[in-house]
Amino acid sequence: MADTQNGRVAVYLDFDNIVLSWYDRVHGRNSYARDRQRIAEDPSDAEIAARLRAAVVDVGAIIDYASSFGTLVLTRAYADWSAAVNADYRSQLVSRAVDLVQLFPAAAYAKNGADIRLAVDAVEDMFRLDDLTHVVIVAGDSDYVPLAQRCKRLGRYVVGIGVAGSTAKALTAACDEFASYDALPGVELPEREQPARRQRRGKGGADPQQEEAGSASAGRVGDEAARGAGGRGRYRDRPAGATDQADPDDADDVDEDPEIAATGLLIRALWLGQEADDSGWLHSSAVKQQMRRMDPSFSEKALGFRSFSDFLKSRSDVVELEETGHERLVRLADQGS
Q1: CATH number for the domain including 170?
Q2: Are 241 and 174 part of one and the same domain?
Q3: pLDDT in tens, 21-59
Q4: Are the C-beta atoms of residues 117 and 78 closer than 8 Å to each other?
Q5: Single residue among 189, 211, 240 that ends a domain in this structure
Q6: What's the CATH code of the domain at 209?
Q7: What's the rounded Cα separation, in Å, for the pair 55 and 167?
Q8: pLDDT beyond 70 at 8
Q9: Separation between Cα atoms, residue 175 and residue 186, nearest integer Å
Q10: What pLDDT does 4 receive?
């Protein structure tokens, strides 16, 4: 993470994107598309109202996370605020000093409406406010890739926030740092996932089952994970001619095992580090930094570990960890002295 002592942060929320994505995360893929008509016709219907309540987005968690990078200079949310699904958020957003940018769809569903307006405003703000240090983009659409790249070229540190399973891999890679909304402090996962997230942790903060799963995944990963396309583990290649749209095909691979992906990422980071040091021993902080460069969405805490050291210890079949005082060194296992 960049220095946040004097950070000045601009936050841009594609509100429709995050609300729709979280609704699908809670109720299953394409749930919002199936319920869209019923929501528009009668959002007070008992069944629909219950589904909307179950998928409420915690805007405060997003803003609090953004504030960890520095002072919030401006925060804007883009949506049609007359739509029932967004209207209920207005008081919550206004209480957090969020500017509500009204979008008036020219058609029943204005594709790219928020994308274009948000991008234009962000670029204008960067030239108008030359003291901005961080740009936080809350969305999962690959249409924001050029914006993220432009912000980086203009010297800003770009942070992305998106919903797992509905975020374009290209957007994740385009950011300096990417966080899953699901993993933000205070965000409750869908009911069906609660038990897995709240398992009892063992010594050192690592979940006993997590450590066992980590070791098992290390044995399975091998060259397959290390060869993952774009350095992202077991991602399947997309069909030729596939377009970059922020719907199912553009999102994270739902079949990917995050444990295997993380192990493969670790192996590749260590391979790269060995080119600079023949001994194979690398500082764990440098390894983590390289992993974040390769995959900005990597987070050991999202995998259930309190620290990066705990994550490394769970991969004992793959890496060796040497701790001397405050110094932690790591290398691939079975290299010898």
Answers
A1: 3.40.50.1010
A2: no
A3: 999 999 998 999 999 999 988 988 999 999 999 999 999
A4: yes
A5: 189
A6: 3.30.420.610
A7: 17
A8: yes
A9: 23
A10: 53
H or E stretch at 79: strand 71-79
The pairing of strands 327-332 and 282-283 is: antiparallel
Q: Is residue 337 part of a domain?
A: no
**pLDDT digits over 69-78, tens only?**
889 999 999 9
Query: pLDDT, tens digit, for every residue of 211-250?
Result: 444 444 444 444 444 444 333 333 333 333 333 334 444 5
Q: What is the extent of the structural domain holding 224? A: 199-332
Give the number of residues written for the chain: 337
Amino acid identity, residue 279? S
Both structure tokens of 110: 């204005």
The tokens 């194979």 sit on which residue?
280
Domain boundary pick from 135, 155, 189:
189
- Residue 160 pLDDT > 50: yes
Among the listed residues 224, 218, 191, 207, the one whose alpha carbon sits nearest the alpha carbon of residue 302: 207
Same domain, 157 and 36: yes
Whether residue 134 sits in one domain with residue 205: no
- Residue from 120, 140, 124 nearest 132 by CA: 124
d(CA 75, CA 96) in angstroms, rounded, equals 9
Distance CA 97, CA 87 (A): 16
Q: Is residue 266 part of a domain?
A: yes
38 and 142 share one domain: yes
In the sheet with 71-79, reading across from the earlier edge strand, the strands are 99-102, 71-79, 8-14, 134-138, 157-162, 177-180
Note if the pTM is more than 0.85: no
